[in-house]
């Protein structure tokens, strides 16, 4: 039973600002088991995965109470004294591509006088390969956290992978699932993420951004409803649009690994984190996310037996173009090492254009991370 020692989590009110919201499709997973349900959902999703890379899901069989409990646990962790949280931070491990545990804010000077404002706590999936000491407040509820992690994988990730298989016209609907087995080694993780509110002066220096435009490195990222508006996507018209919080939904975005496996047919969504609108600018932003990735042994070559990809002659990706055949384990390590590389303050314009030194963006020779301005 949930512990009575943790107060329930109360979501803050949504913004009343008139923002330009993105138009995103919503998948109703209650239709999944119905006759022809997967096919109907695949047809509904086909445009989104190819052109947008973002969509919502609803009716995913995990209660709002369970989701709010994860927000409450994240809040309790971030309320700990900084010195206590730092016990779970290993800077050397982070620099080598191990992204689990705690990453404090203030590690990077974004521009002169303004440091990053994001704290991250990653809990790796419970596959037996990532045993870690957890803070007492989380360890006391570790069974609940594991159940949530497994439920999200089974009830959301696996269903979406089956729908993706239908989109790709794969003969075996389990093909993608076999490469995303929960109990096989991979770098999936649950994340509690905390953005500290900035002053107007700090936001101006940072181009009004908490994080510039980027893509995620895995298969899909699941973002549980976050009422503090900040997430924006770059749409097919090259316009930044706000992602609106929808009740009882998960926002899903496609990542680089799935894009690589489909030869770019599935779009790795371009998104950024903007400073919240004026009526929410003073509020710290707490997020709960789940990052799904293929199993470590999977080679990131385009899928060869998809009739869709073969008709479009999508047989290459950024890795194969360089003559590389990276495993997911190799990709995750080099990408995370690049992400955590300490860089000098960057050039930032008031309208949020970030300019990095080319060496700071290098992932492997010939392949650089992209910053979308």
Helix and strand run = EHEHHHEEEEHHHEHEEEEEHEEHHEEHEE
- Terminal Cα separation, in Å? 47 Å
Tell me, rounded to a whole number, the average pLDDT.
Answer: 94
Shape: globular
| pLDDT < 50 stretches | none
Structural class: alpha+beta
What summary fits the major beta sheet?
8 strands, mixed
Oligomerization status of the protein chains: single chain
Instruction: Please give the share of residues in helix.
Output: 25-40%
Please compute the radius of gyration using only Cα atoms. 20 Å
Strand line-up in the sheet with most strands: 1-2-12-9-14-7-6-3
Percent of sequence in beta strands: 15-25%
Q: Would you count the extended β strands for me?
A: 18
How is the secondary structure organized here?
Layout: E1 26-28, H1 37-52, E2 54-58, H2 64-78, H3 82-85, H4 91-95, E3 101-103, E4 109-111, E5 114-115, E6 118-124, H5 136-139, H6 142-167, H7 175-178, E7 189-195, H8 200-205, E8 209-214, E9 220-224, E10 231-234, E11 240-242, E12 249-254, H9 256-261, E13 271-274, E14 285-292, H10 307-311, H11 328-340, E15 347-348, E16 354-355, H12 358-361, E17 362-364, E18 367-368
Parallel strand pairs: 1-2
Antiparallel strand pairs: 2-12, 3-6, 4-5, 6-7, 7-14, 8-13, 9-12, 9-14, 10-11, 10-13, 15-16, 17-18
